[in-house]
Design a protein that fits this description.
The complex is a heterodimer of chains A (145) and B (167). Chain A has 145 residues and is an alpha/beta fold. Chain A has one domain (6-136): Rossmann fold (3-Layer(aba) Sandwich), CATH 3.40.50. Chain A contains five helices and five strands; from the N terminus they run βαβαβαβαβα. A five-stranded parallel sheet of chain A has the order 2-1-3-4-5. The two termini of chain A are 16 Å apart. Chain B has a domain at 10-14 and 26-79 and 87-141: Rossmann fold, CATH 3.40.50.2300. In chain B, 34% of the residues lie in helices and 16% in strands. Chain B has five helices and six strands; from the N terminus they run βαβαβαβαβαβ. In chain B, strands 5-4-3-1-2-6 form a six-stranded parallel sheet, with helices on both faces. At the A-B interface, helix 4, strand 5 and helix 5 of A face helix 4, strand 5 and helix 5 of B.
Chain lengths: 145, 167
Amino acid sequence: MAEIKEILLVDDNPADIDLTRDILSRNSCRSNVHSVADGIEAIAFLQRQGKYKNEARPDVVFLDLNLPGRDGRSVLAEAKSDPALQKIPIVIFSTSSAHEDIRCSYELGANCYVTKPGNLQGFVSTVSALASFWFSCVMLPGKED
Amino acid sequence: MNEPDVDILLVEDSVDDAELALHALRKEKLANSIFIARDGEEALDFVFCRGTFPGRSFDHPPKLVLLDLKLPKIDGMQVLKAIKSDPRTRTIPVVILTSSREERDLVSGYDLGVNSFIQKPVDFDQFRATVKSVGLYWMVTNQPPVRADVKPNLDEEAPTDEVLLTK
């Protein structure tokens, strides 16, 4: 069973990134938490291109949908159609609760869809639930690279 | 005849494990209704609305499939493959809950599109705790897929602890 060592947060809101990092660390997350603010950077990170060529592939990705550059749907579609990336669980973490966004995300292969709460208390409990499930319960395959 | 909606399809051939899982899910009131399929064939008949389930509809899929791997008739990996390769069923969240520690099962599971892969603990209390965590995450934290033709329903009904059918 592979341990989650690398997490990638893809979110254009720096406050949400900071808060997520803080909550993850408070939930005893010892993983390296990386973050990028748009879809183009997310794909570059996942593909280990350019400045990300020495980064490890993430074990899990928390992906916002509405992003500058390339949106989250496009990132999700590319990751899930690439044999080198398709095994990486992608958690959609978006403020959208629109049925179309949820349905489309599952169609594209999202592992799950979690709505980002708009209030602090909800945000803390939701990220804690994410951490508890993905870091304590889930088994992931070992990485080939 | 239309059959009632099912929240969780539990695919488990062990009577003890099924009872334990059911107990944990009911205790936490995590599902209105749970159906237990005892083998892979019954699970696929249920999901694909055929065999003894002609009254079921693709418009009302389970919100979650909890899937063991070692199953009679059709094994769990084949069940996963069938669900995830059919456009009518591929958005249904499938969580493998297995005692297997085989790396190849993990790799195959994620390659085939499993939503998450959970190790089934041997210890009685840990098993209940794991089922509770899985149920909480998938039935409370996660948003299940919705069909394009379904209107928003923000008023959740109170759980009723109903087990539709168990063999």
